[in-house]
Amino acid sequence: TGEPTATVLTPQDIEWTTDPRLYAYRLINRYGHGGLLSPASNEVDARRGDGVLVAGIPTSGFDEYCITSVEIYRTDSGLDFGLGDKQVNDSGWYKVGEIPFGVATFVDASMDVDVEHTPLEQDFAPPPDGLFDIAYGRESQLFGLTEHGMWFSEKNNYHAWPDKFLLKVHDGHKKLSVGRGVAYILNDGCPAVVDLTYDTEAGALHRVIETQYPHPIVSRSSAVVYGNICYFATRRGLVALSPNGEASVISQAWYTADQWENLEPWTMHANVHDGYYYGFFKNHAIRLRLSDNAFARPDKADLTTLSMRPVASYRSDDNKLYLAFADGI
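Above: the chain's sequence. Below: its structure in C-alpha cell form.
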C-alpha cells in the first residue's frame, strides 16, 4: 500500500493552537482482520475540529484478500496544556473513521480522538528465522518449519511467535505437508503427524504421532496430500502416511526397493489430478490411481508408466494439470 495525502480544508477562525498530524489507513477483510498500517501521510497542522481531507486511499486490487473496508487513523499527541510543543513522533495512532473499500477519500473533523478512542496496538515481530513451508490454520493461525521444529504464531496474531508455540521435532525435518486438521512433518527419520485440532493456548501444543519405522523423504517435491493421506518418495519406494500415523510403502507392488532406487527418486516431482498420483523422475514417469483405502492390496493395473518427462508440474485451482517441458507448457 502507498501513503495517503492529507490536506487541511478551510481552517476554523478560532484561536486554538494547531497540532501536527499524520494520517494512515489499514485494509480490513470480510472476516474483520486488519493488515498493517500504510506508510504515513505528509504532516499537516490542524486545530481541533478542522476538516482534514485524506486522499490517496486505494479503491481496487487486493482481490485475494477480500477487502471490504478501510480504517482511517491519525496521530494525536494528547491534550495540550500549553507547556510546550507537541511532538507528533511521540503520538499513538488513533482510529478516526472507517469507509467502505472503493471510497477514495475521507474527511476527518473529529475532536480529541485520544479521549474517545483506544490507540492502535502495533506490537509486531518478524517470524522466526528460516521459517519455510508456511501454512494457514484455523482461527487465523500461521505455522511452518524452522531448524528448531514446527513453529506456530498466536491465534489471530500473525506477528507474534512465542517460544511456547515451538513444537520440537526430531530427525532433520525437510517438508511440511498440510491436510484437513492435520500436518505431516517429513524428515530424515520417522515422519511425524501433528493434530491441528488441538489447542495451543496456555502452552499446550498439538498432539503428535511419530511413525513406528523410519521413512526418510528424499524429494520435497514428491510430497502431496490427497484424501488426507500424505504421499512422498523415499529411497525404498513411494510411501503413504495416514493421520493416525500408519505408513506403508505402496509402490512395492510394482517395484522392488532396488528397482525403485535405480529410478533416482531424489529427482522426483509429483502432483495429483483426478485421483491419480503423477510422479516424474529424471528418466521415468508413473501414473498411480489412488484408492479410497490407501493401504488396501493394490491392483496391478492401478499403475502405468508414462513417456513424458516434464521438468515441473502444477495443478490449478480449477483442477487443471499443467506440465512444463524444456520447450514450453
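The mean pLDDT is 85.
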